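Board notes (copied after class):
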Amino acid sequence: VIQTSGVCNFGKLNYYLGARAAADGRDSRYPTIDFCKDPEVICSSAEYKELKWIAGLFYWMESVQTYNVDGWDYLTELRSFVEGGMTGTSFIDAVSGIVNRGCHNPPCGTGELDGRMERSDNFNKVLDAFFGGVIPQVTAPITVTETSDTSDSLTESNPSSAVSTPIPTRQPVSPSSEAGLVLNSDTFVNLAQALDDSKGDIDSKLFLYLTPDYQWIPSTVYRYDDFLESLKIMSEIGVAEKLFYTGENVDNGYIYGLINVAAFLAQSMKETIQYDACDENSWDLIGGKYPLSNACGQLGQSYQDYHCSDEEKHMECPVDPNMSITAVTHAKWYGAPGPLFCGPKTEYSFTGIWDHLYECNRPWANPPETCSVYEGQKAGKYDNSAPYANNAGRTDVEGCCWWGRGVIQTSGV
């Protein structure tokens, strides 16, 4: 799961882009939206459909673009992939590992990489949509070195005359600095044009989901126009002093940015777009059953306990035990669990399971039975006859409103 989750992540969105920023007298893109009081707005807003993308881009900027572990640096490897002709799968496999398992060289602490081939195939589909099968050539910026001359002149790199390490023609610029904002703004013009040229293919060939009848059709949740709007926001405004990387200030430098977009979309297609889901699906089976308390966290996680560091503690959302929310999206396969929900113990003293084997579509029964939890439901029902624990031992959903949301899902407070 790469959706935004946890009190810290939602808190950061609110602190930098939402009502908290406005309350503090800072510029706010969404001054009337309190992501702490209504985290579901990411998926439910009809006015700001780009929010589901912004949540995912926020994760990407926080966890992928900044990844630098054991000598594997994301932006360095991205540039090498572009300058090397964009061949092979080592780059996208490493990125998939970061997203799916938290490391670039799985198996790591959480296990083997899930969906390696799908993620790699998605990446190639995105590249084909962007470049039409003709991979552009991008030459790395020329590096220059200082010579033994005491003047300030610079010459092309020459090992015989260099007396210091190479320095780039353009010194590194912080993407959050004033100069960085100008650079990204200029580069974004070319990036956006390239994306616009591919708009038809993006909506009709990339943003597809698999129906219960095993047909691939265009997503109803994820559309190009919303994605582009979110990309503009995160490339120009950003979150937590981070911006989405859109390329380099060289000829065809926007190609670097396109590869960053392609890697992001490849993961998004695997994680959420193929399910047409914005909210996290309940998928963690415990003893062959789906605990309703999966809303609190899956695979033994507790989203409400995803706190910020001491330095960022002031940003996180408070956990309101009386908050009550129901997700607006969910899985759609035969018997798929209904939407995640949260609420106080005064409303749900304990929670049970989703019985995915229950045949609810029985119009011949006396009295007749129908599937009514969600539209298109074929089987299954909520069963709260007895408490049933999730992987972390929870048998309630109080304070559990922080499940993943967005294309690369944001979860936690």
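Comment from the instructor: Confidence is low (pLDDT under 50) at residues 143-173. The two ends are 16 Å apart (CA to CA).
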